[in-house]
Records
---
Amino acid sequence: MRLTTDHRDGVDIITVDAARIDAAVAIQFKDRMREILGNEKPRYVLDLSQVDFIDSSGLGAIVAAMKLMPRGGKLELAGLRPAVDKVFRMTRMDSIFAIHPSAEAAASA
Amino acid sequence: MQAERLEDGAFQVCCRMDSTAEDVRATLTDIHALLQDHEMAPPPDNNWELVVAEVLNNIVEHAYEDRAGGDILLRLVFATDRLAVEFTDFGRPMPCGTLPFGAPVDLDVSEQDLPEGGFGWFLIRSLAENLDYHHDGDRNRLTLSIPLG
């Protein structure tokens, strides 16, 4: 479960370098996000464009990460592939997160 | 993992995995590879994989209480328009002997109170049909089917 960060235009883009966020990696994902969000940048965008599968554990881990946002900021999401987007829509979690078509779109928003 | 073409043309995959999230993930990855090796047209969406993953995760977490070393048997039968799945495990039975209701989670709460779990059965019930569960002697058996496209 590799997460890499890139700071551009006042936005911290966190790229998930993995195809799946599932029960096998949910805890690692949360731990890594806790480290990254501790840097307290103004905006964080989670780039999920390489992720083609999340299950309910993966969704829960992303919600947990959102709760770790400093100063109650919003964790934004970008690049949701159809299978991932579906899980967010079915659970209505798409209403909780700002979702961008891509990391680039998020950075210029 | 064993695969065979059945008399009625359906494609059956049978396998056994250990009661860990890692082995569940490995099994799903292996099934993808198997479908490709046998030149099976991939199912039109991944609803089947999400349902199977959620049930398997529940077996690991609840039937085996997150302890490795338990057996989970999986049988998938891919027909043209639906997938029939049978899950067998030798762990604890379902509480009350029935499947969870799977109500949608309540999102009308403050951000810090947003749920981080409890979505699994809602997803399973939204995507799968003909759910049937029995605890027979020492084993749990769950069957369901998932429409394909």
Note: The longest strand of chain A covers residues 3-8.
---
Amino acid sequence: MAVGPNAEPDHGSAAPLSFARLITAAGFLLTSFPLGIFWFAVLVPPILLGVFLAAGWVAVMTLALALLWWTGSPLRRTLGHGLALISAPLAVLSVRGAQVERRRLAGSLGYPVPAPYRRQPQGTILDRACARAEDPAAWRDLAYLLLLLPVGALGFAVVVAAFVAVVGTMTLPAWLFVGFPDGAPLWREVRIDTLPEALIVAVVALPVSTLAAYLLIFGVSRAHATLGGALLGPSKSARLAERVEVLTESRSRAMEAAIAERRRIERDLHDGAQQRLVSLAMDLGMAKEKMAEDPAAASGLVEEAHGEAKRVLSEIRDLVRGIHPAILTDRGLDPALSALAGRSRIPVAVDVRLEDRLPEAVETTAYFVVTEALSNAAKHSGASEASVAVWREQAPEDRLVVEVTDDGAGGASLVAGGGLSGLADRLSALDGRLFVRSPKGGPTLLRAEIPLDASGETYRKS
Amino acid sequence: MTGGPKGDAERPVRVVIAEDSGLLREGLSRLLADAGFEVVAAVGDGTRLVAAIEEHRPDVAVVDVRMPPDYRDEGLKAAIEARGRVPGLPVLVLSQYVEEHYGAELLESGARGTGYLLKDRVADVPEFVAAVRDVARGGTVLDPEVVGQLLSRRWRDEGLSSLTPREREVLALMAEGRSNRAIAETLFVTGGAVEKHVKSIFGKLGLAQTDTDHRRVLAVLAYLRG
């Protein structure tokens, strides 16, 4: 296979704990502290002011509400709006800070955190600011920025301590001459007072302190990143809401794909087999009429009917195979795809690397991805050959990957209503995705990814 | 090679039919009986097929792939099982779809007396009857569609690409189990011309020339399945 397994970049790479990463992590932790101080200083005054104003506003409005309540006046809503307006500057400020922090987390720690905000409404700056204030994500940003001070202080302390420990052990022998002429105290009565002793201790202690520093810095930066992910990323309910949105959409797309499929089958049966059967019945009817008076003509008609019947058979066979190939259920993807390749009008090389059978829905969808891709290659792109590769990969998620390449003219795209978008719809029902790379002049690469974890926890990854 | 009652003199070819559709079972029985076969049993599922074969020891079994209880490949499995119990049993498997994979499984259980045809071929009565007789005699008959799949699977093969179009045609017919005479009739050429083609094909593919049609088919199939 000439096609590599990575047609598009994948997130969530597990890079090794390199020295460069250690330095950037330490830098991140060191800068978190001053940033924490900065945000604390910037945010606390507006918080206090906001609390003060809000208290006053609530007091005023309570009074007004008491008067307006019985009228059911829409003025009631002003209370909420007033509070939003008071807190809006704070929310906008928090979001700004959080955006910087998200960039820092992604850049320095390699920990991308998706922005969790609700969609901003159209309208005046005031409307948008109010919407920000009503977005819980903005308040979680604020919490993170306030926590940045203690967390940043801790990280700062850890980096400094780690640095001191490593440098301290490295320079241990020198202390004998500088700070401790009588020997350095090691443990209660034990003292290091000769140079060889100091060297031995330094050699033994250096790896230990280096490793400890290493682990501490990575541990704390990891913890910081986790905190960032929890507060700056989408909350569980926001993730679920997004997941519901995706599911609703994919469900309706899958429904539409199923309906379109039924329409196609109806059309194929109607235009093909049904017409042929009509003509067959007609031939036989005429033959029956002529049997007595003109046996020669009758025999010709029967001959014709015989041919027609055989064509109907082969047409229905193709149609039924297109609905669901029996060999796929019986023997799995490899034999089914090999048979498909064998029937293709252009030569197709098939490379399927699977150890086990997969869920039927996955196998069927993968099969139809290849069917569609090969029929496109043979019909539209004028390809002279194609290749199919199917394999299962574990990282970044357990999934089935199907790639079909052809050497045709390219220019395939996911236009609405086309065969490829129908495929994307079928894939979306399984949380699968379709990628098409088809520059003008070819070659065309079609890649489908179908997740295989049945736990239903896929929303975590998006 | 058309089937007539006089084909095998005194003793008619004894056949067991396994086909779950009653309509088709009756039709096949009538068709084969008309052509001079003796239908000793006609059953509707795999278990009864194995039992009927053990009981009657027929000359050939004509078996549908899809049968109860799961309507998948019970017929194929039953045929292979029956061959385990009655070694050398000639079997002609009929299927709504022919897939090279099934054909390969069947051939693995023994290539002598093996047929694998698309069900549609029943419509061409003389050819179908000839195929049943061929299999009963120990021949190998493969559907052109299976051969097509085998050939296209090996499209990159050096030996195959060195064949002329005519030689490819001859090779396909050989793989279907046709004799030189049958190939000559199909292609409207003389027997000598076919022999020349066959010789050239065997040379190009590096196959050893064999005397019998049957072993020649096996050599070609073995090559195509590579």
Note: Chain A has twelve helices and seven strands.
